[in-house]
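In keeping with the milestone schedule agreed at the kick-off meeting, the structural modelling team has produced records for the first pair of proteins. Each record is given below as a sequence line and a structure-token line. The laboratory manager (R.T.) confirmed that both were archived under the project's standard naming scheme.
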Amino acid sequence: MHTLTCDTVVCMAQVDRISVTMPPDLGEGVRQAAARQGTSVSAWLTEAAADKLRNELLGAALDQWEAEDGLFTQAELDEAASTLGLAPRADVA
């Protein structure tokens, strides 16, 4: 009888290999950040890219919302900040 023990399973049916060029100081920062998180540079960059894409999609959705329903009021922005545990932005016009 065999026992299989696995702490982490990463399954990717397909991957897209991309070569990335960046300034040396940024590359070093990425390597250090990945090491601090105990992950690979590839996994760290994948998470960063996914975060960037989610932020862009959220921005587009909010732009569409405002186009259809008008700009968010300062009260709405303050309520959203409070809900998220953030300080209200003073620079919002």
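The second protein of the pair:
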Amino acid sequence: MSDRLIDLTDQLERAAARLRAGELDQPEAAALVDECARLAAEASAELDRRARAAIAEQPPGQAELALDRGPAAPGQAEIL
């Protein structure tokens, strides 16, 4: 089974390489930038889905703790 995030990352890296090469005309580059935005949105949705699934798998009460925990104070390590 292929990991969708790896596939999306590979596609984004190939698109970035094409953009950096500077060989595309303006309409092609604009279309590729739009494709990158679509791929990034898809990757974001997949990450969100995975995070929500991981929280849902927590024992009772743990999901609320994970959601309620704020960021660590500056200079303090985050306790997991």
